[in-house]
Amino acid sequence: MLPKPRFKKSVLAHDDAPAPSWARLYDLDQIEQILITCASEQQDISYARLLNALGYEFSRPKMRSLCVALTALDDRRAKLKQPELAVLVVRESDRIPGQGWWVGRDTGSYKGPWDGDEAKAYIRKIQQKLFATVKK
């Protein structure tokens, strides 16, 4: 049997080490602040604009990573009894969150489509509730 490998502690584990370039994609505090600003201005934000605000150009892999962070952010806020923010992040084409937002979430009594006018009205209703809770 081979001995277990021993690894030195990573240089990146030190507090003064620079963060990896991808770290901003998972900076929940920064993402939260951007989305709270959007909510206080009663505006949504596209995936591309949010990625740009974090210092990235849009790409599908980065968008998928951002969606993981948005889910984690909403989970964290739910534990604190705070309203979700990911509903503000939308596709530029139709101003509706992407499929990942809809999958696995409790949409209450809404059983309609994930796109089109009915979905827009549902999303807008959730966004309006959020806007009412955020101070300007």
Order of helices and strands: HEHHEHH
Class derived from helix and strand content: mainly alpha
Rg calculated over all Cα atoms:
18 Å
Mean pLDDT: 86
Task: Note the gap between the termini.
Answer: 63 Å
pLDDT < 50 stretches: 1-14
The major beta sheet can be summarized as: 2 strands, parallel
* Spatial strand arrangement across the major sheet: 1-2
Number of helices: 5
- Helix percentage: 40-55%
Judging from the principal axes of the Cα atoms, what is the shape?
A: globular
**Fraction in beta strands:** under 5%
How many DSSP-defined strands? 2
Q: How many domains make up the 3D coordinates?
A: 1
Question: Which SSEs are present, and which pair or pack?
Answer:
Elements: H1 28-40, E1 45-46, H2 47-53, H3 60-79, E2 89-90, H4 99-102, H5 117-133
Parallel strand pairs: 1-2
Helix pairs in contact: 1-3
Which structural traits does this protein have?
2 strands; 45% helix; 5 helices; mainly alpha; two-stranded parallel sheet; single chain; 136 residues
What does this structure look like?
With 136 residues, the chain is an all-alpha fold. The chain has helices at residues 28-40, 47-53, 60-79, 99-102, 117-133; strands spanning 45-46, 89-90. The radius of gyration is 18 Å and the shape is globular. The chain is built from five helices and two strands. Mean pLDDT is 86; it is low at 1-14. The longest helix is centred in the middle third of the chain and has 20 residues, at 60-79. The chain has one domain (28-133).
Gist?
The protein is mainly alpha-helical.
